[in-house]
Design a protein that fits this description.
There is one protein chain. Helix content is 75%, strand content 1%. By secondary structure, it is mainly alpha-helical. Helix 4 packs antiparallel against helix 13, helix 4 packs across helix 14 and helix 5 runs antiparallel to helix 14. The protein has a single domain, classed as Amino acid/polyamine transporter I (Up-down Bundle). The longest helix is centred in the N-terminal third of the chain and has 33 residues. It has a two-stranded parallel ribbon with strand order 1-2.
Length: 362
C-alpha cells in the first residue's frame, strides 16, 4: 500500500460511504429509533436529514479553503501543532476501536444467522485477509469495486422492499402527536451516529479529486442515506409494531423473512445478508485505509504495506477481546459508541469549524 497514484472522485467517495452505511443501519437504527420514539420512530429520519444537511453545509465552507487537504491537516492548521496532534491521535483511536467493534458485530451477526457453528476467529480472519489483499493496491481499486457493488445492493434493496409492502400495517405508525417530536429527535441519535462515518471521507480528503462536485453530490448522498435510514426503520415498524420490534435482534432481517410471493418464493431475506457481507467489507476497508492514512500524514510515511499487515493483525486481536458476547456488544454500542460517534463525527468538527471561524481560518 504505497502512496496512492491518482485520486478517487467525489462520486466514488460518496458511493463508498453509502455502501458502508448499509450494515450498521440495518442492525442498529430501527431498534434505537423504536426504543426512543415507539410508533413515531420513522420520523427520526427527518431530524437526521436536517442535521446532516447542516453538517454538510459546514463542510462546504471548510472545503472552500481546504479542498485539497485532509481533515488531519485542517485540524493541525486550526488547532495548532500540539493540540492538533492530540486530536488526531483521538481520531486514530476512535477509528481503530470502531473498526474492531464493527468486525466483531459482523461476525456475531453471521454466526447468529447463516453461519451457526463457525468460529468467530475464522469469520473475522477471512474478512481481514480479503481486505488486506484489496488494500495492498490502495484506495482506487476499492473505489472502482464500490461502483459495481452499489448497483447490486440497490437492486436487491428495491426488490425486497417492494415484496414486503403487502405485510405493512399503517396502523403501526399511528397515532402521531406533538408529544412525539422530542422522542423522534432523540431517536435520530442512532442515525447521527452512523452518519458520523462520513468523517472518514474527510480524513482522506486529500485523496479525493473534488472538481467542484462536493456540494451537489454530498447533498444527493445525504438524501440517499436518510432515505435508507427511513426505510430500514419504517418497514420493520410497519410489519411488527414497535412493541415487538424492540425485542428483535435484527428487525429488518426478520421483517424480510415474512416475504412470501404466491407461496413460491420464500427465504428472500438472504438477500439482506448480501448487504452485510458487501457493506462490512467496504466498511472494514475504508476504516483500515483511513487509520493508515492518518499514520501516513502524521509521520510523513510513504510505503504503508509493512504497516498494513501489522495494523490488521492488531485489529484482529482487538476485535476478539472487545466483548465476550452479543449482549456486551449491544451495551457497548448503546452506552459508549453512540455518544462517541456523534462527538467525533459531528461535535468535534463543528467545534473546530467554530474555532476556525474565530481565528479567520475558514
Amino acid at each position: 500500500m504505497s502512496n496512492d497514484i491518482g485520486k478517487i472522485s467525489v462520486r466514488q467517495a460518496m458511493i463508498l460511504f453509502i455502501i458502508l452505511f448499509f450494515a450498521p443501519a440495518i442492525r442498529y437504527i430501527p431498534l434505537y429509533a423504536a426504543e426512543q420514539a415507539k410508533q413515531a420512530g420513522w420520523l427520526s429520519a427527518f431530524f437526521a436529514f436536517a442535521g446532516g444537511m447542516i453538517y454538510t453545509a459546514v463542510w462546504w465552507v471548510f472545503l472552500k479553503k481546504y479542498e485539497k487537504q485532509s481533515f488531519v491537516d485542517i485540524i493541525k492548521d486550526i488547532m495548532g501543532k500540539i493540540l492538533g496532534n492530540i486530536i488526531v491521535v483521538i481520531y486514530f483511536l476512535w477509528v481503530t476501536i470502531m473498526l474492531a467493534y464493527n468486525l466483531r458485530m459482523y461476525a456475531h451477526r453471521m454466526i447468529s444467522t447463516v453461519m451457526t457453528g463457525v468460529d468467530t476467529v475464522v469469520i473475522i480472519a477471512v474478512m481481514l485477509l480479503i481486505v488486506a489483499y484489496v488494500l495492498r493496491n490502495g484506495l482506487i481499486p476499492l473505489a472502482k469495486m464500490g461502483e459495481l457493488i452499489i448497483i447490486a445492493l440497490f437492486i436487491i434493496f428495491f426488490i425486497l422492499n417492494l415484496f414486503i409492502l403487502p405485510e405493512i400495517d399503517v396502523q403501526h405508525f399511528l397515532p402521531i402527536t406533538y408529544k412525539d417530536i422530542f422522542p423522534a429527535f432523540t431517536g435520530s441519535f442512532a442515525m447521527f451516529a452512523v452518519f458520523s462515518y462520513n468523517i472518514l471521507l474527510m480524513l482522506f480528503n486529500d485523496k479525493i479529486d473534488h472538481k467542484g462536485e462536493f456540494k451537489r453530490l454530498s447533498t444527493k448522498t445525504m438524501i440517499i442515506v436518510s432515505s435508507l435510514a427511513l426505510m430500514v426503520t419504517l418497514i420493520p415498524l410497519g410489519v411488527f409494531g414497535y412493541s415487538i420490534l424492540v425485542k428483535m435482534p435484527i428487525p429488518y432481517l426478520t421483517a424480510m423473512s415474512q416475504i412470501s410471493l404466491f407461496n413460491i418464493i420464500e427465504r428472500v431475506e438472504s438477500g439482506v445478508i448480501v448487504f452485510w457481507v458487501f457493506s462490512d467489507f467496504i466498511l472494514a476497508s475504508v476504516f483500515i485505509y483511513t487509520a493508515l492514512h492518518i499514520l501516513r500524514l502524521s509521520f510523513n510515511l510513504i510505503n504503508m504495506k509493512p504497516y498494513l499487515n501489522t495494523y490488521i493483525l492488531g485489529i484482529f486481536f482487538l476485535s476478539l477481546i472487545i466483548a465476550s458476547s452479543g449482549t456486551e456488544l449491544k451495551q457497548f454500542s448503546l452506552n459508549i459508541l453512540t455518544s462517541w460517534n456523534i462527538v467525533m463525527g459531528f461535535f468535534l468538527p463543528m467545534l473546530i469549524f467554530s474555532i476556525g471561524k474565530l481565528r479567520k481560518k475558514v
